[in-house]
Amino acid sequence: MAAWVVSAARPGSLERAELPVPSPAAGELLVRVRACGVCRTDLHVRDHDLLPHRERVVPGHEAVGEVVATGSGVARQPGDGALIGIPWLRGTCGACPYCTRGRENLCLSSLYTGWDADGGYAAYATVPADHAYEMPAGYAAEELAPLLCAGIIGYRALRRADLPAGGRLGVYGFGASAHLTAQLALAEGATVHVLTRSPAAQALALELGAASARDARTGPPEPLDSAILFAPVGALVPVALEALGSGGTLAIAGIHLSDIPPLDYQKHLFRERTVRSVTANTREDGRDFLAAAAAHRLRPRVTRYDFAHADTALNDLAAGRVNGAAVLQMPGGRQEG
What we know:
CATH topology of the largest domain: Quinone Oxidoreductase, Chain A, domain 1
Order of helices and strands: EEEHEEEHEEEHHEHEHEEHEHEHEHE
Radius of gyration: 19 Å
């Protein structure tokens, strides 16, 4: 099968490969991939910002497709034609204190698609059945793909930001995750202010219903109750904290962040401002977010790339040329959900 793998010798590039179609192990599903989202984490793995956990791993953890085979012990199979999602979180131990407390996202033995195991930059991929998602109807496959990481991580970040009902949310950066999270916050009654330097992203934010869209250095037009930092830029942490009102919370939604400059206690933390990180997600987060996506019919803004142009998609993402989410589309992969 056609696939892309992370180069061990040349950080910053993928290699095209022909690999055997994988066989599903016990408890796994084999999925024919229709579309796979291009996530910033894929970029970090490709560029060795996150050192690959597996040599020549196939990246991609936002894969959508149909089940074509199952391993032994799969108790429940999806209905005919159902679209299945292969997400970032692939496995946890189930027995550590984090797992038993419902915080499996912090499991020290956790495994991830496209990092520890081959992902969706391939014609076929496997996924443990108890970590796969049945995707909501009414979306095309390429619209569903970014929901699987951008959407789910954004959902967790939104909850970590402790946004009060009807509150004012600041969104710093406006890529794949941010533009989905903003839509959900708006659907739940929030006022959303988007802080990004990209004119195209500002225009998209206003089109989707944001109350304002401006450069982060300018700041929002009113104090924020909560903020989410999606841009992997540590220098924006004090900027976002200073924009918070009393008791506000900043959630940092990213697996990789550049260095944070020194904070001024009075300007950035006093009056009970809070900073929280976001680490992966639980399966409950995924189920809850996809239920919300079914209820609210989000509008993913998708830039489609042919499977042959995976490196181009990652390079465009790195250069800020993607407005919304980038998605690799397999030949014949476009399909309505």
